[in-house]
Amino acid sequence: MEDSSFSTVPSRSSTDMCELNKDLEKITEDVENISVQLTWMAYDMVTLRTGFEMDTCMRELEDACSRCRAAVFGEPEPKAGSDNADSSQTVDEVE
Predict the structure, then answer these.
(1) Is the model's pLDDT at 86 over the cut of 80?
(2) What is the spatial distance between Cα 3 and Cα 39, in angstroms, rounded to a whole number?
(3) Confidence at 38, pLDDT banded by 50, 70, 90
(4) Are the C-beta atoms of 88 and 81 separated by less than 8 Å?
(5) Residue 63: how many other CB atoms lie within 10 Å
(6) Are 87 and 62 spatial neighbours (Cβ–Cβ below 8 Å)?
(7) DSSP reduced 3-state for 22
(8) Which of 65, 92, 90 is nearest to 78 (CA)?
(9) 89 contacts 69 by C-beta, under 8 angstroms
C-alpha cells in the first residue's frame, strides 16, 4: 500500500544547490539592509518628534526626581543649577 502523496524528491545537481544558496544569501542580505533602513527611519522619526526640548524636559525631570528623593528620604535639597553626584544613583543604590 504505497501512498501516492509521498513522491520522491528529484535529485538536484550541485550547481542548482549553489545557485539556490546564492539566491538565499542575496535575499537575506537584502532583508537585513531593509531592516537597518527601517531602524534608522524609526530613530529619525523619534528624534524629530521629541525635538530639541527633550534636553530641557530631562533636566526638569531630574530636578523633580531629586526634590522627591529629598522629600522622601529627608535629604537636603540640592541647590539649583549645581550637578548633584547623587543624581546618578539608581533607585537600588538609594534603598
Answers:
(1) no
(2) 49
(3) very high
(4) no
(5) 16
(6) yes
(7) helix
(8) 65
(9) no
- The model's pTM: 0.41
Question: What are the grid coordinates assigned to 43, written together?
Answer: 530613530
> According to the model, what pLDDT value does residue 21 have?
94
Give the pLDDT of residue 11: 66
Phi, psi of 47, deg, nearest 5 = -70, -35
Q: How far is CA 24 from its chain centroid?
A: 27
25 near 33, Cβ under 8 Å? no
The single residue listed with the C-alpha cell 541647590 is 79
Residue 92 has pLDDT above 70, yes or no: no
CA–CA gap between residue 69 and residue 40 (Å, rounded)? 37
Q: Which helix (H) or strand (E) holds 31?
A: helix 14-50
pLDDT tens digits for 14-37? 888 999 999 999 999 999 999 999
Residue type, 39: T
